[in-house]
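DUF4142 domain-containing protein
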Amino acid sequence: MKNSLITGLSLMALLLAAEITVAQTGRMDSDLVGRTSKIEFDRMNKEGAATVAAITPANSALSKADDHLMRQVAMGGLMQLETSKVAVQKSTNPEVREMAQAEVEEQTGLSAKLTAIAAAKGITLPTTPDAKTQAMVSQMQGMSGVELDRHYVREHAVKGHELLDKTLSKVESKGQDSNLLAVANAAHPLVKTHLKVARELNSKLKSGKAMNSGQ
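Predicted structure tokens:
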């Protein structure tokens, strides 16, 4: 009788400890985006946005090569912006929405600064998505749930940032215009941060460890 009572109490203690662990894990995961804390992620996003916003447009003319590079940055950012808007609208995963919302804010600020720089130089940048981006958006509109989350994070949060990373590296190595270089230097650290977080989140989604809706 005594042994049965001890066994029963021990089992209750184990169950209680398991519940506490699950609750603590849930709370910890709710404070993360990928493996990065939301507080740190938000801090880096605000810091990056402020650095881009501080750039003062100059009216110096762009060379043909710099004009091409600026358009590459603008179109890459526009693709990220449009696909991320869909993820914000349709995803039910808190971490995916957090990633996508940060991307929308980053690319909105970057687009505004590029537009201001282009206007100062007397040129016009694309303001609407091209056919490739429209096709990507349409594809995502037909998705939902885990399929949408995994597709967005893999194809746009990860691969999209890998492309932007390469484009900005090209600008930093080949660009000549001071404004264009300033944009690349200001935006690149945040692009690298988003790529890191996106890879972390992609790994969690693959393993099924990313937060689900309602958690």
